[in-house]
């Protein structure tokens, strides 16, 4: 019988006097560590070993950071990421598994039920609460088990270090580095990643080219950093579709325009072009830019248009840059007010 039954003939609920009794707390199940000092010591050593494994994992991640640096080669990126991930995973899991094993085998596991007090307890109740906290500390062995406590401190101290090392890769204050790229007057526009120069006659209406500055492919150092700043998207439209400001009419060539490929929101690559709408879409957060109107933002979180690269054609018909970008590329940063 339950507290209420339904009379399906009348649709009315029939209330009965039967109630479900409180089953109470299940009988306490004594663990081996509760009745055997040998098992208790073994569990203590296991917890310590897990915390020490966490320290070893964090130390290995730091070692991998220096021993396997990331270069322009894709293989080094994969190897470094794999080893860093393994070390940091061991560092995190060692702490997690150690804490769980400690709680399951060494800390008190008897269930208790206490009444909830809505208002502030009396001084006697508060004093009793402090006694309970001290008792819990004593029973858990946190103050008594020095080896576990010290290994836990070590694990917690070592675990953030790999992340701190990775944060260091964000580099110093960029200052003016975002204002300057490899583009300069006379630099040819080349295809990414082959480095093949592009002639204006190769760019048909509606076509899109992913572009890098000439010479980028030959760099041996800082290649990725320079590419991240200098990547450009080249598009050709019908000249009559362009709505150019007077001071920018000389920045394009016969409907060919070039804009930074780096989104001004958080720096994702803007690489999706809709030919029939002349819109550029950032796949990360859907910021949308109108190529016909200087890549102004028409949708999404980006706060400013994509910087335009002024281009021209040299005597051989190849597309070249007139200068570097006239404003910083990428996300708006702390020196900007927009």
Q: What's the arrangement of secondary structure elements?
A:
Layout (H helix, E strand, L loop, with lengths): L3 E4 L4 E4 L16 H4 L1 H31 L6 H32 L17 H18 L5 H13 L1 H9 L20 E3 L16 E6 L9 H8 L1 E5 L19 E5 L11 E3 L4 E3 L6 E3 L5 E4 L11 E3 L5 E3 L17
Antiparallel strand pairs: 1-2, 3-4, 4-5, 5-6, 7-8, 8-9, 9-10, 11-12
What features would you describe in this structure?
The chain is built from seven helices and twelve strands. It has 338 residues and is an alpha+beta fold. The chain has two domains: 24-168; 177-321, Rieske [2Fe-2S] iron-sulphur domain (Rieske Iron-sulfur Protein). The strands form four sheets. Strands 3-4-5-6 form a four-stranded antiparallel β-sheet. A four-stranded antiparallel β-sheet has the order 7-8-9-10, with no helix packed on it. A two-stranded antiparallel ribbon has the order 1-2. The protein is elongated, with a radius of gyration of 33 Å. It starts with a strand and ends in a 17-residue tail after the last strand.
């Amino acid at each position: 019988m339950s507290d209420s039954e339904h009379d399906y003939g009348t649709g009315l609920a029939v209330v009965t006097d039967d109630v479900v009794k409180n089953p109470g707390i299940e009988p306490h199940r004594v663990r081996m560590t509760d009745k055997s000092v040998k098992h208790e010591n073994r569990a203590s050593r296991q917890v310590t070993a897990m915390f020490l494994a966490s320290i070893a994992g964090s130390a290995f991640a730091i070692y991998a950071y220096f021993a396997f640096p990331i270069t322009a080669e894709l293989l080094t990126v994969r190897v470094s990421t794999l080893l860093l991930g393994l070390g940091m995973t061991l560092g995190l899991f060692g702490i997690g598994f150690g804490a769980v094993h400690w709680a399951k085998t060494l800390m008190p596991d008897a269930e208790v039920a206490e009444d909830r007090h809505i208002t502030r307890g009396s001084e006697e109740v508060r004093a009793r609460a402090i006694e309970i906290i001290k008792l819990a500390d004593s029973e858990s062995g946190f103050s008594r088990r020095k080896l576990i406590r010290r290994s836990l401190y070590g694990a917690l101290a070592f675990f953030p270090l790999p992340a701190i090392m990775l944060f260091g890769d964000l580099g110093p204050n960029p200052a003016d580095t975002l204002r300057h790229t490899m583009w300069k007057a006379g630099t040819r526009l080349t295809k990414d990643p082959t480095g093949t120069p592009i002639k204006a006659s190769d760019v048909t209406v509606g076509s899109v080219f992913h572009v890098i500055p000439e010479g980028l492919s030959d760099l041996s150092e800082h290649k990725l950093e320079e590419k991240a700043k200098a990547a450009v998207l080249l598009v050709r439209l019908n000249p009559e579709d362009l709505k150019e400001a007077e001071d920018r009419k000389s920045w394009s060539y016969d409907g060919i325009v070039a804009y930074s490929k780096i989104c001004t929101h958080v720096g994702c690559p803007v690489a999706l072009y809709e030919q029939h709408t002349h819109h550029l879409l950032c796949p990360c957060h859907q910021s949308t830019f109108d190529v016909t109107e200087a890549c102004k933002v028409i949708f999404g979180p980006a706060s400013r248009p994509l910087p335009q690269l002024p281009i021209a054609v040299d005597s051989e018909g190849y597309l070249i840059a007139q200068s570097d970008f006239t404003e910083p590329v990428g996300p708006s940063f702390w020196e900007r007010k927009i």
